[in-house]
TrEMBL record, chain A:
Organism: Zhongshania aquimaris
Record family assignment: Belongs to the binding-protein-dependent transport system permease family.
Pfam families: BPD_transp_1 (PF00528)
Listed transmembrane segments: 12-32, 83-107, 114-136, 198-217, 237-256
Keywords: Cell membrane, Membrane, Transmembrane, Transmembrane helix, Transport
Record's protein name: ABC transporter permease subunit
Organism classification: Bacteria, Pseudomonadati, Pseudomonadota, Gammaproteobacteria, Cellvibrionales
Span of domain ABC transmembrane type-1: 76-260
From TrEMBL, chain B:
InterPro entries: AAA+_ATPase (IPR003593), ABC_SmlMolc_Importer (IPR050093), ABC_transporter-like_ATP-bd (IPR003439), ABC_transporter-like_CS (IPR017871)
Family annotation (Pfam families): ABC_tran
A GO molecular function held by the record: ATP binding
Keywords per UniProt: ATP-binding, Nucleotide-binding, Transport
Protein name, UniProt field: ABC transporter ATP-binding protein
Species this protein is from: Zhongshania aquimaris
Residue span, ABC transporter domain: 2-238
Length: 274, 258
């Protein structure tokens, strides 16, 4: 018998073992839900899978009686649009500020302390300000995501820029490069995969900001829907929605990881080495 | 070509280099040896322009040497000399791109010409079969070959090598020596090479500089800096003298490592 720290399961076992906890959780849920429903058929706390299926069937595949929209898809599209727009702005601004403060010592001296202070402001506390300034429309929700995520990305990119070995910058200069060329050909290409990493890491907080903003003031969106139906204790809607958000978050993360692998093959090699 | 006039380097109270003067003619191959931490790399950085002397001056063709790296002075470091995000071929092409464009992107015929030129240079250093790989797929020796090819495409007048083969196996090191000597003769370069391996200094190049402290204060080891204690024409001096230097340096570096 090998020592436990040397015992690595084979591929098939690995998949099986990975699925095991998921299966256990689902089984546990089903038995708990069945037990509660057996006692009281009108129980709302732990709906059965068929009840959840009905709820989603109603929201996703039948037009709403009031507006004629397919609510589930409308919520998804609105939320993803806000998230995508917010992250796009955050990634662009974060890259710009991070790169500039990382690459140019003059800008680092004047803006890096400001960046540190700004990144410590709790974005949620700014939400009322955003609602007052931008109104209750789309702008304030997108702005919350952008404001919440930009400082994180900027600081991360700044750190990554400073991590690029000095030797490379000296080498580029001995090849006659000026500052602009070094930024465009040496720094930015090496920072792109790091930007994708930073975006992946900050997506969690971006979802948080999105759902919080939608919960407070919105007329559609995934966060809006779960907070709306909470009033009717509609766990049969809330639980599938939470699962759906998780699936979306997982898919976005997976796609970004794949993009990084295909677009920057050298980065994967570096990661593998270190 | 290069005139070094009474240069000193201090960091606060620590004197690294004291009162170094020398004249170097075009086409010389100078090997700098010395115990680790004696300031030979600092000296090389002053030639490169990333460090400036605290006192004294270095003149290139009678004018102060620019205090910023430029295309006249190529460099190969022990590591991190190549760009990890560019293929082997692009790593060499990029030098021409920097030279010919403002923003760093080359198109059409000019791009093909630069790629052609880079491919020929890679052939000379023996990397033509790896053109499309990334540096992280190369062995240490191949990476240094690439760094040399990259440093030479713009035909710098001075080539600075900072322990370029320190991390390589002895067999590969011998191959690299051949390559460097070959390129030095062909391109009529002026080469400065820092090494901690005295043997390398004995048979590479035309001139050997030994960096060491001329005086030592046991109570304040940093009060005096290193100077050039030997300046020898390689090949024209006796084996015994070299052995003697080897001995003294070996003793010193042992003492320092304890």
């Amino acid at each position: 018998m090998k020592r436990l720290i040397n015992f690595t399961p084979s591929r098939i076992w690995r998949i099986g073992l990975a699925l095991l906890p998921f299966a256990a959780i689902i089984l546990l849920y089903i038995s708990a839900s069945d037990a509660r429903l057996a006692e009281n058929a009108a129980d709302k706390l732990l709906p059965s899978f068929s009840q959840m299926g009905d709820a989603i069937q109603r929201l996703a595949f039948e037009p709403s009686k009031r507006s004629g929209d397919y609510l589930f898809w409308q919520d998804t599209v609105s939320s993803l649009r806000r998230l995508g727009l917010g992250m796009l702005i955050a990634a662009s601004l974060g890259m710009f500020f991070g790169l500039m403060t990382g690459a140019l010592p003059v800008l680092n001296a004047s803006f890096a302390p400001l960046l540190t202070v700004v990144s410590l402001v709790p974005p949620m506390a700014l939400l009322p300000v955003l609602f007052i300034v931008f109104g209750l429309g789309e702008v304030s929700k997108v702005a919350l995501i952008a404001i919440g995520v930009t400082p994180f990305i900027a600081r991360d990119i700044q750190k990554r820029t400073l991590e690029i070995p000095r030797e490379q910058l000296v080498k580029a200069q001995t090849l006659g490069a000026n500052s602009g060329q070094i930024i465009l050909r040496v720094l930015i290409p090496q920072l792109m995969p790091r930007l994708i990493d930073a975006v992946r890491l900050s997506l969690g907080s971006a979802w948080l900001f999105l759902i919080a903003a939608e919960a407070i003031a919105s007329t559609d969106g995934l966060g809006y829907r779960v907070f709306l139906v909470r009033r009717y204790l509609s766990m049969d809607v809330i639980l599938p929605y939470v699962a759906w958000v998780t699936v979306l978050a997982f898919t976005i993360d997976y796609l970004l990881a794949q993009l990084s692998r295909f677009a920057f093959p050298w980065h994967a090699q570096q990661e593998g080495k270190s | 070509m290069i005139e070094i006039k009474n240069i000193w380097k201090r960091y606060g109270d620590n004197v690294i280099l004291e009162n170094i003067s020398a004249t170097v003619k075009e086409g010389e191959f100078i090997t700098l040896v010395g115990a680790s931490g004696c300031g030979k790399s600092t000296f090389l950085k002053m030639l490169l322009g990333t460090e400036t002397p605290s006192q004294g001056s270095i003149l290139l063709d009678g004018k102060p040497i620019p205090s910023e790296p430029d295309a006249n002075r190529g460099v190969v470091f022990q590591q991190y000399s190549v760009f990890p995000h560019l293929s082997v071929l692009e790593n060499v092409v990029i030098a021409r791109v920097f030279e010919k464009t403002r923003l760093g992107f080359l198109w059409g015929g000019a791009k093909r010409a630069a790629r052609q030129e880079a491919a020929e240079l890679l052939n000379i250093v023996g990397l033509s079969h790896m053109q499309h790989s990334f540096p992280d797929e190369l062995s240490g020796g191949m990476r240094q070959r690439l760094a040399i090819a990259q440093a030479l495409i713009l035909k710098p007048r001075i080539l600075l090598l900072d322990e370029p083969f320190g991390a390589l196996d002895p067999g590969i090191r011998a191959d690299m020596h051949e390559l460097v000597l070959d390129l030095w003769r062909k391109h009529k370069l002026t080469v400065f090479m820092v090494t901690h391996d005295l043997k390398e200094g004995f048979h590479l190049g035309t001139r050997l500089w030994v960096f060491d402290k001329r005086r030592v204060d046991a109570q304040a080891p940093n009060a005096y800096g290193a100077g050039i204690t030997y300046d020898l024409p390689v090949g024209a001096c006796e084996q015994e003298l070299l052995d003697e230097i080897d001995q003294s340096l070996a003793v010193k570096s042992q003492v320092e490592h304890v």
